[in-house]
Amino acid sequence: MNDVPTIDTGRLLLCPPQEAEHQPLAVFLGGERSEFIGGPESLWTAWRDCMANIGHWHLHGFGLWTIKLKSNQQAIGRTGILNPSMWREPELGWHLFDGHEGHGYAYEATLAARTHAYDQLKLAPLASYIESQNTRSIALAERLGAKFEADTTLMGQPVQLYRHPKPEGA
Amino acid sequence: MPLTNAPCLQSERLILRGPEARDMEPVIAFLQDETRASGFGHIPERGAAWRWFALNVGHWHIHGYGYFTIETKAGEIAGISGIWNPETWPEPEVGWVVFDGFEGRGIAYEAACRVRRWAYEERGFDTLTSNIVPGNDRSVTLAERMGAAYERSYHNTNMGENMLYRHPAPGAAS
Fold first, then answer.
1. Could you list the residue range(s) of the whole structural domain that residue A19 is in?
2. Per-residue model confidence as pLDDT tens digits over A38-97
3. Measured between CB atoms, does A86 come within 8 Å of chain B?
4. Alpha helix locations (H) across chain B?
5. Is residue A137, in this structure, part of any structural domain at all?
6. Quick check: bond before A40 cis, omega within 30?
7. What is the model's pLDDT at position A167?
8. Number of domains in chain A
9. Whole-model pTM?
């Protein structure tokens, strides 16, 4: 595959994932805020997750970007498209590391990731799987124009399936 | 289609090449097999086993090395062998696994020797280890056959108690 593209969203850069990013990722996965995406986890599992995401890019041609602040290159979270073997369809997913909420970064980054998925990858309207208590992610999905579609399960866990709007002009 | 820029290595009876999508099911089947994968890292859940497959692809891209797929010259997928350097490991190791039905033919020995030679000659390693879980007597026998010697035991975050074997230096290895 081609190299992972870098996307400039204005305040942020969506960057190719790097191995060293497992360290901020481990802090995040080890903390309380990861409870909705399978944490808490260890440094080992953060490393494994980080390297598997790099493999995911090469298996599918898409995956999670690392979100960096353009001003200082700090990694503040991840966003992108996931479709590991246990998923039923590609998912638009996002998370921010501690201390970076409340600035609209997840919205800005995820909107750019979705535009890339539609314009460059020609993917169908994307899913987002969200646990019902994860009110911040539900609010962001709705701000992105996604609508509740069904109650379902993902890897045995009950989740809500949100459906993103079609690409503009489709 | 190749997923990595891994080279294709040849030995007398084997081809060692980078992971490809068609290796996914044999690798997942091995990882989910509690008996066969106990010394390597048994992964019961399919999704997590898939993630291991993806992580090996990532490992190749980040480090320029990882696990090769071992193919016989008849094109059978017989196992994996490579150089591995995950977070929490003390240093890079040579690893090997043969899949169900391919034991007893010296495939792991031939593959691991070829991988070690590549690591020394093409990737500039000046030393290599192998991590072996106590009780994995077949791997101890193979490590010793390769000329490796027991150095110490340590606690591995992922695997628990692990014995570290040290391989002969470049020039002294077969």
1. 7-123
2. 554 467 788 888 999 999 999 999 999 999 999 999 999 999 999 998 899 999 999 999
3. yes
4. 24-31, 34-37, 46-63, 107-122, 137-145
5. no
6. yes
7. 87
8. 1
9. 0.88
Mean pLDDT for B101-124 is 97
Q: Is residue A160 part of a domain?
A: no
Is any Cβ of chain A less than 8 angstroms from the Cβ of B61?
yes
Residues in chain A: 170
Please name which of A11, A122, A109, A129 lies closest in space to residue A64, comparing C-alpha atoms.
A109
Q: Where are the beta strands (DSSP E) in A2-140?
A: 7-8, 12-15, 64-69, 75-82, 91-96, 127-130
Could you say which residues from 33 to 52 on chain A have a Cβ atom under 8 Å away from some Cβ of chain B?
A: 42-44, 46-52
Terminal Cα distance for chain B, rounded: 32
> What's the mean pLDDT when you consider all of chain B?
94
Residue A40, pLDDT score = 47
- Please give the residue of chain A at the shortest CA–CA distance from B50: A85
Which member of B3, B55, B62 has the closest CB to residue A48? B55
Number of A/B CB contacts below 8 angstroms equals 71
pLDDT value, residue A33? 63
Q: How far is CA A75 from CA A26, A62, A65, B94, B107, in A?
A: 13, 19, 10, 33, 44
A166 within a domain of the structure (yes/no):
no
